[in-house]
Give the backbone structure.
Amino acid sequence: MLDQNTLAPFKSALRGELITPEDPAYEEARKVYNGMINKRPRLIARCTDVADVIEAVNFARQHKLLVSVRSGGHNAGGLGICDDGLVIDLSRIRYTHVDPEAMTVRVGGGCVWGDVDHATHAFGLAVPTGIISTTGVGGLALGGGIGHLTRKCGLTIDNILAVDMVLADGRFVTASERHHADLYWAIRGGGGNFGVVTSFLFKAHPIHTDYAGPMLWDLDRAADILAWYREFLPKAHDEINGFFAFLTVPPGPPFPEHLHNKKMCGVVWCCTGAAPEEALAPVRKAFPPTLDFVGPIPHPAVQSMFDPIYPPGLQWYWKADFINEISDEAIRLHVKNGTKLPTMHSTMHLYPVDGAASRVGKSDTPWSYRDAKWAEVIVGVDPDPAKKDTITRWARDYFDDLHPHSAGGAYVNFMMEEGEDRVRATYRDSYHRLAVIKARYDPDNFFRVNQNIRPH
Ligand SMILES: Cc1cc2nc3c(=O)[nH]c(=O)nc-3n(C[C@H](O)[C@H](O)[C@H](O)COP(=O)(O)OP(=O)(O)OC[C@H]3O[C@@H](n4cnc5c(N)ncnc54)[C@H](O)[C@@H]3O)c2cc1C
């Protein structure tokens, strides 16, 4: 029982807030990005610094509370929050510090990626991240990190130089190549299994303005575009990044009215090198796009391009896989399912994970699909809870058709709660090493609200 006598000392030891179900702030504080998730924690500790995080970890351990760690709250399965436990909410630990000479950025554990893009852009720098700027740094960076710069700069995990973290026993450590090298290896893909990361040190790259945006075609060209794309992209220079998508044109500016609500296929490009027009000229010639919004654009604008379409609170159902090759049969199945998008927000993306990401050694990080070419994600999305079954069914059917054509596992950050077999299929050979490190740093599986690795 957590009575007032137990809670009062914890509350007064925190600089941040301790929110309980009786507080007016509770209903808002327990919400996460995916409106399909509805969990009711017993306590939410909104930490403001490392001392608060240590306090929260120790309190939860002493009182045997289930713990979840929340950064941006974007996780598909809602793994930033838990039922009946303590949420360690990092959203107040939000600072950035750019070192332009060292080309690094120090980032508080509760930042969102827009904070990082904003801070680094002033120095003509960027860190490879995801494609929506409201996503939390914590979850994305610890699970992998796929986005517009993957082919040029690698995954986000390939750009983590060090982290500060609070372990399950309340100790504070730095993990880097020189300190706790085993932990440094594990956190670059092993997710939130090993402790609470209170700050990240990232390597940044000289990137300021991209040649980027969507190129869209009518659905009757989908098979041709996908067949062209599967040949073109793997052979293209690392500075050419483009993810294939089935999508619906949003009903508003800047899109021309005659395309509003039209289902289409497309590639969202992000080119960072010299002469990008030349690289994209062949596709413009062979398949003149119905809509071509590709041009010079500041990097933070590319990073936040999709933010207005996907505000918090929509219903999301995710399915994902890694892909080695896109066969003719896979194209047929993509066209069959992708042309049946059930709602305006639903979509399918094929994100490239080759280029620089594929040249990192297979055992250098836990990411075990360095040989895969794409990370596929199928997401049924809609604002209306009544459409939950429709979007879920569509995503599952699409996945069931394509899964036999996949590499087996999926990117952990594109998965809902799908069970241990799926987590093992994702980490493959890395799973055992992760489990041994988990046993060293978290033998009681204190951090288990995540894509869980069991201590071994
Ligand atoms: C709209 C949308 C777009 C996305 N686009 C991309 C994309 O382009 N590329 C991509 O790679 N992913 C993308 N994702 C997936 C994203 O990487 C995951 O949802 C990720 O979990 C989000 O991180 P978060 O911090 O916001 O999540 P939260 O829900 O806050 O946390 C999720 C989990 O991460 C762990 N965690 C978070 N912060 C910490 C921390 N500081 N210390 C320890 N553990 C922590 C915890 O285990 C927690 O359970 C997208 C997700 C959404 C919803």
